[in-house]
């Protein structure tokens, strides 16, 4: 997939388009799962995930964890970014998520559940960005 001349730009395009698609699905499915999800929450989730996939793009140039000098493969990188950023989202929206979850089958679960809930999607996004555009030094060559 060579939309742009730069592999870095291609990786960004793949990441952002995937974020746009999955965020759009979340936008339209939120009212189905959570009957009291308003337009502001739905828009925030959509924009959050579009932005978050850009973070996946940024970390795609790292093949190793610098401090520990360990491999930083796409499956670990995507999971780590997902868990951390959704942890932050749960911290900011804890009260709203708790209220939303009361009307669903998720009643009694912690709002921090979203850290694991989106894990598979992050794996998919980082896999697609790596598969179609590469990672690490291959991007900037």
Task: Spell out the blueprint of helices and strands.
Blueprint (H helix, E strand, L loop, with lengths): L6 H27 L5 H21 L4 E2 L4 E2 L2 H19 L1 H8 L12 H4 L1 H15 L3 H4 L1
Antiparallel strand pairs: 1-2
Helix pairs in contact: 1-2, 1-6, 2-3, 3-6
Walk me through this protein's architecture.
It is built from seven helices and two strands. Helix 2 (39-59) packs antiparallel against helix 3 (74-92). The protein has 141 residues and is mainly α. The protein has one domain (7-59, 70-140). The radius of gyration is 16 Å and the shape is globular. The protein has a two-stranded antiparallel sheet. The protein has helices spanning 7-33, 39-59, 74-92, 94-101, 114-117, 119-133, 137-140, and strands spanning 64-65, 70-71.
């Amino acid at each position: 997939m060579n939309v742009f001349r730069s592999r870095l730009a291609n990786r960004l395009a793949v990441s952002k388009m995937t974020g746009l698609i999955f965020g759009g699905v979340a936008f339209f499915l939120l009212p189905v799962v959570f009957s009291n999800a308003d337009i502001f929450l739905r828009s925030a989730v959509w924009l959050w995930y579009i932005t978050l996939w850009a973070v996946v793009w940024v970390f795609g140039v790292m093949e190793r964890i610098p401090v520990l000098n360990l491999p930083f493969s796409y499956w670990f990188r995507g999971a780590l970014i997902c868990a951390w950023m959704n942890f932050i989202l749960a911290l900011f929206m804890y009260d709203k998520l708790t209220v939303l979850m009361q009307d669903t089958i998720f009643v009694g679960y912690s709002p921090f559940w979203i850290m694991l809930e989106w894990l598979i999607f992050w794996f998919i996004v980082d896999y697609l960005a790596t598969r179609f555009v590469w990672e690490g030094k291959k991007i900037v060559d």
